Amino acid sequence: MMTLTTIAVLNEKRSAARFGVPVGALVTPVLSEAGARSLPPLPCVQGRAAVVCSECGAFVNLYCKLDPRTGTWHCIFCGHSNDDRGVLIAGNAQVCPELACEAVEFVEPAAGAGLEAPPTPLVLLAVDATLDALELASVQAALLEVVAALPPHTRIGLLSFGAAVAAFNLTRADVAAADVSPGHCAASDAMAAGLRARRAVHVVPLAACRSSAEAAIQSLRPCADGVSARERPRCLGAAIEAALILASDAAGVPGGGAGAGGSTDGPSAQGMTRAVGPMASARVLVVTGGPTTQGPGAAPLGDLDAGGAGGPAGGAAARLGARFFGRLAAAAVAAGAAVDVLAVGPAAVDAPLLGAVAHRSGGVLMLHESVGALFGANLAAALQRSVGGAGVLDVYASPGLALTHAVGPVSGLDRGPSGAPAAAGRAGRSTYSPRAMQLAGVERGLCVGLSFEVAAPIASEWAVLQAVASWVGGDGAAVHRVVTRRLRAVAGAGAFLRGVRPRAAAVLQAKGVVREAQRCGAAGDRSASLPLLRTLGQHLVHVASAAGELMECERGWLGRRKRWRLPPELRTIAEALYQLHRGPMLGGMRGHADGRALLHAAFLGAPLPLAVRMLLPALFLLDTATGRFQEVGPADTALLPDTAAVLDHGSHIFIWLGSALPGGPQADPPPAHGVPHAAGMLDAPAPWTREHAEMACQQLVGALAAGRFPVPECRTMLEGTGDARYLAARLTPVHRDTVAEQAAALPALAGFPAGSRAAAAARLAPTDEPSFLECLVLDFISPAEEQALLAAVDAGEWEVLARRRVKHFGHIFSYMQRSVDREQPATAMPAALQPVLARVLAASGMPVADQMTVNEYTPGVGLSAHVDTHSAFGDTMASLSLAGPVVMDFRRGGERRALALPPRSLLVLSGEARHAWYHYIPHRKTDPAPDGGRAPRAARRVSLTFRQVRSLPCACALAADAGAGERGEADAVLLEAAHVHTVYEAIAAHFIATRFAVWPKVREFLAGLPTGAVVADVGCGNGKYFGVRADVAMLGLDRSQGLAAAAASRMAASNPSPCKPSPAHHADVAIADALALPLRSGACDAVLCVAVLHHVASRARRLRLLRELARVLRAGGRALLTVWASEQEDARKLAKWARIDGQQTAAPAAATGHGAAGPLDGSTESTPAAQSERLRAGGWVVDREKGTVVLQRYCHLYGAGELEALVRAVPGARVASSCYDCSNWCVLMQVA
Predict the structure, then answer these.
(1) Over the stretch 217-257, which tens digit does the pLDDT of each residue have?
(2) Tens digit of pLDDT for each residue in 913-947?
(3) CB–CB of 677/629 below 8 Å?
């Protein structure tokens, strides 16, 4: 029940802090069933009081000094001498197991402990009355199963809540009757008194009301008003308050309600102080389909969208709601009631607020996108976890060690005027240390992390820690579980490192970081986690520099400046911090604040095995030749198309099925008599099919998830589908490392052919978290080599550009054509460069570097944002900085990163860093300095950029896969940025003023949708379709900030209150990329994608957009797609449009530019020659006659059948219908 992070501790304070390894323990008072089965039972002492120190209250243990003749023993923690003559018998493990074992349990019956007999268990069910029909049917079935499984002596109560709170009368079997109280305010004294007065009919033993309870559950009716789930009247706060009043009264605790004066801002814990004695054994189970929208605790939905009412964006109403739920949490603790909240459906529920009530009371918050088997399993498990109440955890440490903080489901003890804990009598103890803390719940698997520091030199050979968990069991007995462990005090680093327990240390370190993330509201505010990420990076550097071996001329990772070889004891810690840095708890994976807040709370209370998996995901590969699962590291190159895999990430488990596995119906499933774990085996069918593989994976998932609470969510996905991103985002991007580095880091990959690994990486779906490789090696060359290289490149003529000088070696790069003339080689590489070139190749992994560009920069001169030409150069490039430092910036979408490049450093870019991130050097004379100031640039800086000239078409993962002539990813991104995104921002005002007519095809499509449908308008423009249907919810998304702002203004004009939208519009607007929509899978009933696809510049990206639309659609959902046709009704338009990309001659359809007018900006008129040049280069021309500036907007004209072919290439999608209308091709796409 206590796992140390190290079995050795450095005996000096300064030395102990050197390695950054936390000294502490993970304490699990009650192991999960699986954990308990793996350990021998604890020695149990019954009928005898534990022997404790009369001075500090610590329990006697095998490390205390005992005189067996006199029974005198000296406390190892405080040094006090105790006389327990006749009680302690040294060496007799049966009579005094505490003197022979590190862990022991004491059980004192209720009478012997001075405790009252425990009350019968109490279960209060509070069910949302605004659920949809399907959701309610599943909830009712799960509740009926739970009620049927409860013991007959259990007391039960049932409440429902919507606009009001209804407490059911469970004494009536003939009719479903309930007492209804208003939900718009907190309970007044009179309302609370009314509930207490009729408690006998609301809380009834199950044996006397089973049929009434079942009838009451079945009487619940679904909501049929057509309002979206998140906007339905739901007085969730008032319902929890009513349940707590019933729970407190059932426990014999006076008070409750709003307190004196009938205050409406929340319940008062005054008057609900827990009486000395056992807890009420109460459980409040709340099922809700959305957030609190009415009554106490309600906050504007806009605050919820901003990350939760408790987040930094919350207004006055949000702060009032946070205070109300804080009082609810205090009332739950006072009433001795654990509150479990089970949210169902896709609507956000404000997890930070509800989580405060759940976790502080010893309950749990769970989110379920759908009501299925997972919901029922969690509902049943929630009632089976508790083993007692009134839990207290006390901690003792020998001199030299001091407790710094505790992480997990604990809080400070309530202490009386004398300073003695008010909880003392509850668990049968009279003395607690100042470090004692209240356990939020006594449940299986809950874990508390304890961190210590070396506060003074440790004089003895050993340091000793003791944890005492005390609680009142279900039978009223007082239980004390005591574990005492010791750590050897050492002086040497080697002895300390050999004593480190990496996984426990990594989990404790990560729990401290996540606790800080929870405190600062990082779940709802992404910016709040940035300082934590920087701290993580600094800690990694500290660990590496203190205990690692510096590897010269090696590639770095995590963007760090040095590469270190870590000792095995610390590698796991570093890997865990790396995964925490990029994973779902703190990293950039998309998701709502509810999901992140839930992860934070679950991780803080997770036991060691589950916490390790939440930090370090495990990948299990199915070997179809043997039927065995092999555990490998979470490497992206391990996903091969002919196999299946299971990724265990603790709270989520993913099944991945390769595209090469044959599908189709199967007659005989594979025999399942093997043990489904890494060493287990199934009889392998011949051949393996997708169905067989999925069945084997499901068995493994069942074995992995056994005993976990909440039950992990499992998702199954096919290779190449949109859902595969959820798995890909959690894999380590090892494909950016060399083959040797992969084999060294993950030995299990050594048996995978390098070609298979590369092919697997190329097939990966785009990840939510941008993968970024910055390999920076300091002092790559010596100062002498630097001077020799500068002399070599200075010899001969320089080519003078507009603001800098350049030279080319090996091949000449044409800035006009953005290509390399392979027939005209440039000057050979300088002889002085050859020794350095060999090291560049070794460090970068490039097979050859046959082209080098030398750039010279003077102060104030920079480099425009660009991505090096994809079609001209290979997938890796390296840049060596000489003479002066500079700060290079990287940009991808809205994300920015800055990287300092000192002299003699080598920067290596590959993968997405090479092809998807823009890099540039700002034109300025100073750069940011590490101390926060500004540093002037040097008089001269020279960069040597090494590349490999591409001789074959690019086949990397970021290239288009559509045949000859199709532009690559980087080229398409650049074209869209210059001729779509920039143009629409420039013409937004003109575009808004001229687009107002509703296209009949769109009106017809929207008219066919059911009431309450959720519609995503992808590329919503100015939101002109928002008002077509008043009874559907529109989610407007647009890449243009100007257009999205106009759409939001249109919505705001009709929606003065975000909580009460007008009948004219139910809409939300977000700035989003259509290729990465910020929507949950299956969240939409329909999608509009009008005049968007023809602005996407490559076939691969068009397919990606369509896959994204299919991902957000529910099964059976439809999307209306419209594009410009090459068969224009007015052929004269074609004559006005010109090619933008002259290299697009081999494309299957013409890529044309369309003049998009914006207001005249006052620029002088250009000459015809200059206008022609700007037109060719993608600039603008002035039309004085119309008073406009004409920009070139990219548009791909679709030929007949082209859009239909794209839709058919999307897995799970089909063409429901298609037509030609007004020079547009229209396709109705339906998702299976």
Answers:
(1) 999 999 877 788 888 999 999 999 999 999 886 544 444 44
(2) 787 788 889 888 898 875 567 888 988 999 999 99
(3) yes
Taking residues 1021-1050, what's their average pLDDT?
Answer: 88
Query: Is-contact 564 549, C-beta < 8 A?
Result: yes
Q: Which of 1011, 1065, 1010, 1055 is nearest to 1035 (CA)?
A: 1065
Q: Which amino acid is at 421?
A: P
Amino acid identity for residue 1187 in this structure: G
| Average pLDDT of the segment spanning 594-623 | 88
| CA distance linking residue 485 with residue 464, whole number of Å | 6
Burial class (CB in 10 A: 0-12, 13-18, 19+), 197: exposed
pLDDT of residue 123: 92
**Quick one: CA dihedral 1038, 1040, 1043, 1046, positive or negative?**
positive
**Separation CA 682–CA 699 (nearest Å):** 10
Tell me the C-alpha to C-alpha distance, in Å, between residue 51 and each of 48, 57, 59, 64: 9, 9, 6, 12
| Contacts of range 164-168, beta carbons closer than 8 Å, 24 or more positions apart | 164/235, 165/235, 165/238, 165/239, 165/242, 166/129, 167/195, 167/198, 167/202, 167/242, 167/246, 168/202, 168/216
Question: pLDDT averaged over the chain?
Answer: 77
Return d(Cα 176, Cα 276) in angstroms, integer. 37
- Tally the C-alpha atoms within 13 A of residue 186's C-alpha that lie toward its C-beta: 27
Contact 123, 155 (CB under 8 A): yes
H or E element that contains 488: strand 478-490
Parallel/antiparallel/unpaired status of strands 204-205 and 282-288 = unpaired
Predicted local confidence at residue 634, as pLDDT: 84
End-to-end CA distance of the chain: 49
Sequence letter at residue 537: G
Cα angle: 304, vertex 307, 310; to 5 degrees: 80
Give the pair of three-digit tokens for residue 889.
Answer: 């910036």
Q: What is the pLDDT of residues 374-390, one digit of tens each?
A: 888 888 888 877 777 77
Read off the pTM: 0.61
- What is the arithmetic mean of pLDDT over 571-588? 77
Cα–Cα distance measured from residue 539 to residue 533, given in angstroms and rounded to the nearest whole number: 10
Nearest Cα to Cα of residue 1035 among 991, 1000, 990, 1066: 1066
Place of tokens 């067989």: 692
The runs of H, that is alpha helices, within 618-708 are: 690-705
CB 917 within 8 A of CB 891: yes
Counting beta carbons within 10 angstroms of the beta carbon of residue 131, is it exposed (0 to 12), middle (13 to 18) or buried (19 or more)?
A: buried
DSSP strand E in 1032-1148: where? Answer: 1033-1038, 1067-1071, 1084-1090, 1113-1124, 1138-1139
Closest listed residue to residue 255, CA positions, set 268, 272, 277: 272
Query: Could you read off the pLDDT of 405-421 as tens digits, one per residue?
Result: 899 888 877 655 445 55
Tell which wins on pLDDT, 1062 or 326.
Answer: 326
Any bridge partners for residue 882, and if so which?
A: 942
Residue type, 296: P
Name residue 660's amino acid. A
Residue 180 bridge partners (DSSP): 166
User: 309-320 burial, b if ≥16 CB within 10 A, otherwise e?
Assistant: bbbebbeeebeb
Instruction: Give the whole-angstrom CA distance, residue 342 versus residue 353.
Output: 14
Q: How confident is the model at residue 1165 (pLDDT cuts 50, 70, 90)?
A: very low
Give pLDDT, residue 768.
38
- The helix/strand/coil state of 49 is coil
Examine the pLDDT at 641 and tell me if it is beyond 70: yes
Average pLDDT, integer, range 193-201: 90
The token duo for 233 is: 């009247």
CA–CA separation, 1092 and 1019 (whole Å): 6
pLDDT at residue 931, rounded to an integer: 54
